[in-house]
Every structure is written in C-alpha cells, then in structure tokens.
Amino acid sequence: MKSVANILSASRIVLSFVLLPLKVFSIPFYILYAICALTDILDGFAARKTQSESEFGAKLDSISDTVFVAVCMIKLLTVIEIKIWLWIWIALIAAIKLVNIISGYVAEKKLVMLHTIANKITGFLLLLLPLLVGTININISAIPVCMVATFAAVQEGHIIKNGGIK
User: Fold this and answer.
1) pLDDT by residue (tens digit) across 106-159?
2) Is 112 exposed, middle or buried (0-12, 13-18, 19+ CB in 10 A)?
C-alpha cells in the first residue's frame, strides 16, 4: 500500500506519453488528460494517507508534473495561436525555473523542486487552461496563469537563495 503514491506518480509519466499520438481536444485526449490530472491529485493524498511521504516520492511527483506539463505544451502549442509577448513570458518563466533547478542543485547537491502553495496554484491553473481553450482566447486566459507562475518561480528562487529549503 505504501507504494501506491509512487505508482500513481509514475503512471502519470507513462500516461503523459500516451497523450502524444492523440488528437488534441478529442474525447480520448480529454479522458486521458483527466486521468493524468486525477493521478496528480491522488498521489499526494495517498502518500499522506499511507504515511509514505518521502523525498523520492516528492521528486517523482515533481518530475511527473514536469513531464505532463511538457507533453501538454507540445500538444497544445502546436494547435493554438499564441502572441509573441506570451511566448516570451512563457520562456522567461521557464528560464527562471531552470535557474532555480540549477541553483538548488548547486546549493543542496541534489534535485530541488519545491512544493510551495504558489507552485501548487500554478499547477492547478495550468491544469484548467486546456479546458478553457475553446471558450476563452488563450492569450487572455494565460495571463493569470503566467502571473501566478511568475510569482511562484520568483518565490522559489528567493527560497533557494535564502537557504529556506527544507
């Protein structure tokens, strides 16, 4: 029972890759997308419920989230039209996150991916974004997501810089 959380996180990686051949915004895409989202919600719950929270599990969850977001971006960014300023903003957020990963590794000699409230809110908003694409212009709906993601990335960098890693 104690490995259920890690199995859920690992399954998100596998299921994310299964999304790749599916047609974006198709029913199979949305079903699999929802299953991936559900594994993201349930892995932390399972870890807490079985008292099996671990550094490995937290890292696996972060890696699973990263793979899921990357696959979704690959799928979505090929079919939606995004303004150049939004591309630049997304690239800046990604650059800050990359600097944070490198800085965390230099400071701690291990992979550091913080589970802050701001990062969790960013993840939730990113999860909702593909569901809004058909109803709200992506260049508008992405603004609050990018605002929160920017704050989360800067906050994460601040925590790493000030030695606040637990």
Assistant:
1) 988 888 888 899 998 998 898 888 888 878 888 999 999 999 999 999 999 999
2) buried
